Amino acid sequence: DAKTTQPNSMESNEEEPVHLPCNHSTISGTDYIHWYRQLPSQGPEYVIHGLTSNVNNRMASLAIAEDRKSSTLILHRATLRDAAVYYCILRRGANAGGTSYGKLTFGQGTILTVHP
Amino acid sequence: GAVVSQHPSRVICKSGTSVKIECRSLDFQATTMFWYRQFPKQSLMLMATSNEGSKATYEQGVEKDKFLINHASLTLSTLTVTSAHPEDSSFYICSARIPDTGFTRPGYTFGSGTRLTVV
Asked: pLDDT tens digits for A73-82?
């Protein structure tokens, strides 16, 4: 499985934007970029995912580099509830002729601290 | 939609006993489920992949006789920790692949986890 590299930790102030980087230089053409976050003592929560183009949803935005070797998760206005561990994960996409979703392999993630 | 219910959320058991953890998909059929283990301040580690009606596929280093996985129906997968020891104390999380996933859906959903403490 292709690996991802994320900073161990980042800090932000409430109401400010947060840019969480992820490097995935060995990404393959069929790998989707997924972001999940995990609060203490809870299961991971889906944030966003993308393949080639930038993506927006109500939680965040995902900016994908043109060569796809890196991506950035953007939280437009951080709140205290956004404090969590954020995981950037590559998921193998569909095989030709059918669907074959790969397993999700978690790296160490980025611990985001949000200051009031 | 696409909710997975995991229980118990917390369990304490005596060393040498077995503990069963259930993971149910509430509003979809989960042909593939995953079981993870997470130690304090560490990331999730995939233990095994289970497919409905077939044997689970275990990751390297995971003892299949100790961590029994049953995925007998499309809505239920169970993980049984047999002859539990204190070192098995951990946070166990299940996940399910969401079928017929369009690009706008996440593809996977996670349970809320089970905190196992073996005393």
From this structure: 999 999 999 9
